[in-house]
Design goal:
Elements: H1 4-19, H2 35-42, H3 48-74, H4 85-105, H5 113-142, H6 154-163, H7 165-199, H8 201-214, H9 223-229, H10 233-258, H11 262-270, H12 276-312, H13 318-327, H14 331-359
Length: about 375
């Protein structure tokens, strides 16, 4: 006979083994539950009506894609539309990829249940995107309700991006070079000042007034002055991008280190840690969540500062390309550059978030 405590522990092990795929020999499976597994345990069993509603919702992206395709093919165009098949590819290709994942998720395998839940969560958003594209195409190409040529239709933007892909590619490389040079320079300077201010009260006494004075001033305000004083336009732009990044990283690093429990430092000193060991073995690891959050905010500031610098001073990059296209009233190329900017900055931000998740994987680990 098992007592009450032993019975409870046995039940926990059985639940754990069941969620881990019935692998009793796996040492990592013992006594651990992931967040998704906890949500699975807490989730109530859905009724047949709820399951049917989920199935209908997962169908919405494909149905909305069909609506967008029919609107594009059946409603007559008001303007000349070159290479109309390109927009169809933009519509159909994502829907086909979604349909493949949707078909795979309908299998009864345990490995695909998570995929089905993700599709159920994302389906309304995907459906709204297809409907938005249909409405936008109807308001531009089909009816001209949105003033032309200031707001071109999607296929015109695609044609402009394909026709001018070389200049867009070169401008993207210039933008990335300026972004990374300014961002990493700002991160390095921000880490030095932030860690020094957070760890040393003497350093903070002298640096904190500078932060309070320069911090609230928008980065774009410094553009005219920097462009006049800088030895080169490119160097001035790097400084502007680095300045916005520096402030965000400095504040986050300083706050993260200042909020560390002093008992950690006392325990480290008791074990013999001194000087740099307290900084690199205690202060920085404990403040890493705040530091990475500051790096994420610094990337947002860097992107804004970058566009301002390129539009006002630099003679290359996507910001310069937008200004050039606007001057020549080539609005389809202007919107193509805006789309490229969105894609590039989202990819950079996504990479930074993946790095942050990798470094802080212990926060999203197993719940004991």
């Amino acid at each position: 006979m098992l007592n009450k405590g032993q019975s409870g522990r046995s039940g926990n092990r059985l639940v754990d083994m069941r969620l881990q795929g019935n692998r009793p020999g796996d040492a990592d499976a013992a006594g651990r539950l992931t967040r998704e597994q906890l949500q699975l345990l807490e989730q109530r069993k859905k009724t047949p009506a709820q399951r049917a509603m989920d199935f209908v919702i997962t169908l919405l992206p494909m149905l909305c894609c069909l609506i967008a395709v029919l609107e594009y093919l059946l409603v007559p165009d008001r303007y000349d539309n070159d290479a109309p098949e390109r927009y169809l590819v933009l519509l159909v290709l994502p829907a086909v990829i979604y349909a493949v994942f949707w078909a795979v998720s309908l299998s009864r395998l345990k490995s695909t249940s998570r995929l089905y839940q993700r599709l159920r969560y994302k389906a309304p958003l995907y459906a709204a995107v297809f409907l938005l594209l249909a409405v936008f195409d109807f308001a531009t190409l089909k009816t001209g309700y949105l003033t032309q040529p200031f707001i071109p239709w999607v296929n015109s933007i695609i044609n402009a991006a394909i026709g001018d892909w070389q200049y867009l590619g070169i401008s993207t490389l210039y933008t990335l070079r300026l972004l990374f040079l300014g961002y990493f320079s700002g991160v390095a300077a921000g880490l030095i000042t932030g860690i020094a201010c957070g760890y040393s009260q003497k350093v903070r006494y002298w640096v904190d007034p500078i932060i309070r004075i320069l911090g609230p001033i928008p980065t774009a305000t410094w553009v005219p002055l920097v462009m006049i004083l800088a030895a080169s336009l490119f160097g001035g732009s790097v400084f502007i991008v680095a300045l916005g990044t520096w402030f965000a990283v400095t504040i986050a690093s300083m706050t993260g280190i200042a909020n560390i429990d002093r008992s950690y430092f006392e325990a480290a000193r008791t074990l013999g840690a001194k000087g740099s060991q307290l900084v690199f073995r205690v202060a920085i690891p404990q403040a890493m969540p705040s530091i990475l959050q500051g790096m994420t905010q610094g990337m947002s500031s860097a992107c804004v500062s970058l566009m301002v610098a390129e539009m006002l001073g630099v003679e290359a990059g996507l910001g310069w390309y937008i200004t050039w296209a606007k001057a020549w009233a080539m609005y389809n190329r202007l919107f193509a550059a805006i789309v490229v900017i969105c894609l590039v900055f989202n990819a950079v931000t996504k990479s930074l978030n993946l790095f942050k998740k990798r470094v802080l994987r212990w926060q999203e680990g197993m719940v004991k």
